[in-house]
Write a structure and sequence with these properties.
The chain is an alpha+beta fold. It folds into 2 domains: 228 residues, 3-Layer(aba) Sandwich (Rossmann fold), CATH 3.40.50.300; 93 residues, RNA polymerase II/Efflux pump adaptor protein, barrel-sandwich hybrid domain (OB fold (Dihydrolipoamide Acetyltransferase, E2P)). Helices cover 24% and strands 34% of the residues. The chain has a 6-stranded mixed beta sheet with strand order 6-7-8-3-9-10, sandwiched between helices. Strands 13-12-11-14-20 form a 5-stranded antiparallel beta sheet. α2 packs across α3, α2 runs parallel beside α4 and α3 crosses α4. The protein binds adenosine-5'-triphosphate (ATP). Adenosine-5'-triphosphate binds next to α1.
């Protein structure tokens, strides 16, 4: 098991910065996802680690070895790409043996290891089949077996599930995680799918426009986004404009009402902020001609979308902003479209970030 240390890696293409001073360390055996929208630089970073691209600055170390100057085939890295990367004229076994043959491993050992790897990915009985005789998911399992057969120090996966349909994607991502745990191999998994990244990783590294904006455990990324991009990109949030009025107790002003936000502690008084609220943290009650309770916002239910156990309500606040609230479906009877409601949340529910545009 090896650590991976990426230190201040930078890359430009034609004078445009694609990677900006990226530093990231993976512990031996760690599974980390690089997550971000298309064009943020994930693949470029992966290609620099793999040796298909040279960094303009910075270093990449695998265990004790500085691999920055080594050609790709000397880095001892296994890689799985999006799809269609198998040799079409070779059987599953021959595909898996390929890397071993190149490394001049003896034939008996090639056969033994190919059989072991195909067993690991659950394809032992398909060993003699050609890629066109296998489903997309099975082909990616062969690609994974091929990458692991060389017993690499690091596994790189570049959107390996993106060409597969939804059900197979979920099955295979769980399978990849199982196999990674069994082999204990340090792994970097590139994806633009947040659910995928959050569900299988030890840690998630979120990239945005060439920057690494946050690295953390999935729950931390979801519950405590450190950057407005992360707050918008991960999960669903409503965003309201606010102002800090009490940075000691954590009180913000939203639409002229005082609302609780422990997260505002430490942010300067009068600072303009963006308030991010997860729909599951918003509480709604019908405003029955009664005065508006303290620490709430008032609005009108505009839309209801049935999600199963919960129903998502869109509330148009009186200042024109929109707030989403997930309410247990059994409790929505009174909350009809057009109904006047007041909305509130607990002290720890709102995530407050300084509004850098203001
Ligand atoms: P995607 O998920 O779409 O592959 P990504 O996050 O992996 O996106 P990259 O493929 O790393 O992003 O690309 C980052 C930026 O660098 C993009 O704007 C891309 O157009 C540009 N880029 C990538 N490779 C090259 C190249 N060889 N020459 C010029 N520009 C490139």
């Amino acid at each position: 098991m090896s650590s991976l240390i990426i230190d201040k890696v930078a890359k430009q293409f034609a004078g445009r910065t694609v990677l900006n001073d990226i530093s990231l360390t993976l512990a031996p055996g760690e599974f980390l996802s690089l997550l971000g929208p298309s064009g943020c630089g994930k693949t470029t970073l992966l290609r620099i680690i793999a040796g298909f691209e040279r960094a303009d600055q910075g270093s990449v170390r695998l265990g004790d070895l500085d691999i920055g100057q080594l050609p790709a085939n000397r880095r001892n890295i296994g890689m799985v790409f999006q799809a269609y990367s198998l040799f079409p004229n070779m059987t599953a076994t021959e595909n898996v043996r390929f890397g071993l043959r190149v490394r001049k491993v003896n034939v008996t050992e090639q056969q033994r290891r190919a059989a072991e790897m195909l067993e690991l990915v659950g394809l032992a009985e398909h060993a003699g089949k050609y890629p066109h005789q296998l489903s997309g998911g099975q082909q990616q399992r062969v690609a994974l077996a091929r990458a692991l057969a060389i017993q690499p120090a690091l596994l790189l996966l570049d959107e390996p599930l993106s060409a597969l349909d939804a059900q197979v994607r979920v099955q295979l991502r769980e399978e990849i995680r199982r196999i990674q745990r069994e082999t204990g191999i340090t792994t970097v998994f590139v994806t633009h799918d947040q659910e995928e990244a959050l569900s299988i990783s030890d840690r998630v590294a979120v990239m945005y426009q060439g920057d690494l904006v946050q690295v953390g455990a999935p729950a931390e990324i979801y519950q405590d986004p450190a950057h407005d991009f992360v707050a918008r990109f991960i999960g669903v949030s409503s965003v309201l404009a606010g102002q800090v009025v009490d940075s000691e107790n954590g009180t913000i002003l939203v639409n002229r009402m005082r609302l609780p936000a422990s997260n505002a502690r430490g942010i300067g008084r009068d600072e303009n902020v963006q308030v991010y609220l997860r729909p599951e943290h918003v509480q709604l009650s019908v405003l029955n001609g009664t005065p508006q309770p303290e620490h709430t916002l008032v609005g009108t239910v505009q839309e209801r979308v049935f999600l199963g156990a919960t129903t998502r309500l869109t509330v148009q606040l009186d200042n024109g902003e929109r707030l989403l609230a997930d309410i247990p479906t059994g409790q929505i009877a009174e909350l009809d479209i057009g109904c006047r409601v007041h909305a509130g949340w607990d002290l720890d529910a709102a995530r407050v970030l300084v509004d850098r545009a203001s």
